[in-house]
Specification:
Largest sheet: 8 strands, mixed
Shape: globular
CATH topology of one domain: Neutral Protease, domain 2
Radius of gyration: 27 Å
Helix content: 25-40%
Number of strands: 30
Distance between the termini: 54 Å
Amino acid sequence: MYRFAFSVIITFFCLQAGSQELFMPRDIQQAFKKGTRSPDGRPGKNYWQNYGRYTIIITAMPPDRTVKGSETITYINNSPDTLRNINIKLFLNIHKPGAPRNGGASTDYLTSGVSVDNFSINSQKTNWPPGQFTNQQVHLSRPLMPKDSIQLAFDWHYEISLKSGREGMIDSTTYFLAYFYPRVAVYDDYNGWDRMNFMDSHEFYSDFNDYNVTIIVPKNYIVWGTGTLQKPESVLQPVFADRFKASLASDKVIRIITKEDLTAGNITARNPLNAWQFTSSNIPDVAFGISDHYVWDGSSVVVDDATGRRASAQAAYNDTAADYHYVSGYARHSLNWFSHKWPGIPYPYEKTTIFQGYADMEYPMMANNSTFPDTAFSRFVAEHEIAHTYMPFYMGINETRYGFMDEGWATALELLIGYDDIGKQRAETIFKRFRVQGWTNSNASEMQIPIITPGDAMTGAGFGNNIYGKAAVAYLAMKDLLGDELFRKCLHEYMIRWNGKHPLPWDFFNTFNNASGKNLDWFWNNWFFSTHYNDMAIGDVKKSSAGYTISIKNMGGFFYPMDVVLKYADGTTETKHLTPAVWEKNAKQIAVPVTTRKKIETVQLEGGIFMDADAGNNRFSADEKKGF
């Protein structure tokens, strides 16, 4: 049954990829018919989006593993629909035995999950429904009408996982708190309630909300997290509060708290418990790290030249992690580069904090990154996670279903910043090894599933390559096709139109078509809706009245740029660069004219990061062809 269904899907996408019109699922079609999405790529005249205001108080008392929370959510229904149920996400129930997940779970991973101790709707105490895992539907005795709001209140607790990754215990007195609070699922214009279970391999989909979060911890514990730290002088001793404030305006790295400071103690206010309050607005999530033995570095950089606005670049880590002594500087470099080069949009938040953990995972204004012996790799990981600030957080992407809309961009940006960091040759060598060769050199069927395939329907290497490397080279192929100036114009238009909203792949495709003034559907079909792969071949090299004609065959189907490197008998060389545009009208084979009076000795196709599945047919030699 599985094999039959798979073959039907692949055949369908192949047929669609052969036409110019982009395939669009029926639920997405309905959004366009209702006017919430527009064919020109803009949000439609009827576009809407729901929103919440979260007030959360968390108490964490390491080494006690029980984390307690209370929360109120004011949820506003901006939709035209009457909501008779409300969907709540409890992501940490992924740790419960029996929870559906992609992959196994060790004993250290498993916990009892989230226990909801009290729950009320509009101040009316309500029984919490039992039995589900990361996705819980709650019936509303009084429906939530359009343009109306509802208030939800929770008291809950959970046992922090000993070994997780994205969140959990780093060591006995260092916790990373993420996905820790009950939240209202996204209710959107094309799919209604997001009822997809969190399976631990895929990522997330969140609304833009306002947060007021207080983390209560014992004295001598420091808290780092999403948002603006309110009244730092109320939780830090004056010398450290002053250093922290100075770092927010400093181009140099300031050691806010050092190993020596930790040894001496007396860092925080001397209350038995301190309440660290953070506020943030119009943001899709929050995360926090706490520790009593992490050092703290901070710096800043101007990210918006027009206003002079600065963003802070911080690092929190165990002093024994040698690479982390450089991480605040790496973060500062990333904020500067992404703001001014690619994507060239000022970093939208006030700060980023890299917290030493195990996940190598992004959160708004935070990253939970491992320590590495190679500082170049530490920088590489930090840059990738900070790049995620734009996609998915600034752009509100549904990562669960369309992960290529965020991971693909972060992967493309990691290469582009790598060019400046370590040079083109080394950056491309790393990129090809980590992001391209796995799927290019594989004959496995799962590697040829179209990128557009919903991520929640996939697992394994095919899923990973679709959302990371394959999508990244698709975006970079478009960059080559349009040229930097027009590509930047289109990318900026997409980000201006859709930041703070929930763009779909078709909104992205349509915006690029609209902003470029070109119908690029032939390209989108080829890269995102087809089962193609990378493989070019030299068909023939023939003499012509003007010189030569070189035939190039597209064996794998993808439209990507390449260099045709000509070596002449006199020892000189010439390189002809071909953009993906050469394949728009002739998808299978093209003829490349070469005007010259010289004799060609060799012809070589070089794709760079667009690795060829069969490089054995990428070279022509006159010595090997009799009578040439």
